[in-house]
Design a protein that fits this description.
Elements lengths: L5 E5 L2 E8 L4 E7 L7 E3 L5 E7 L2 E6 L6 E5 L4 E4 L4 E6 L3 E7 L7 E4 L14
Antiparallel strand pairs: 1-2, 2-3, 3-10, 4-11, 5-8, 5-10, 6-7, 6-9
Length: about 120
């Protein structure tokens, strides 16, 4: 197991993994205003998030063409079961707490602003 806490730089900001066990992972996600995470889903990873600071726009649903959109403010909580397509966009600088199952590499990207997705015609929410 990799030591914690540890900081992982991302093109949209960074994450700090503050807990990692065989059963769960805890992260602090820091997203800079105007940046978005990938439109993605997880095959196995089950995650719950809580907004600590800032405002974030979230797209989520079961199909890329049928996503709900909502704005989350401090205190808001969101559960994303496996298979849920989702994306976060920071409307202001944002801090999110994420608690999830331990499958950190379980990311299927549908679209990405930083060239990390591979589909031929990605949807663009």
């Amino acid at each position: 197991m990799t030591p914690v806490p540890r900081r992982v730089e991302k093109p949209w900001g960074h994450e700090e993994i503050w807990a990692e066990t065989p059963r769960y992972v805890g992260k602090l996600l820091v997203v800079r205003a105007g940046h978005r995470l990938s439109l993605q889903h997880h095959e196995k990873k089950d995650e719950s998030l809580r907004v600590l600071h800032g405002e974030v726009r979230v797209w989520h649903g079961t199909a890329p063409e049928q996503l709900s959109v909502e704005i989350l403010c401090p205190g808001a909580v969101l559960h994303l079961p496996p298979g849920t397509i989702h994306r976060f966009e920071a409307l202001t600088d944002v801090e999110l707490i994420e608690v999830s199952t331990p499958e950190l590499d379980d990311v299927v990207r549908h679209a990405d602003d930083y060239g990390r997705a591979a589909p031929s015609s990605p949807p663009r929410p």
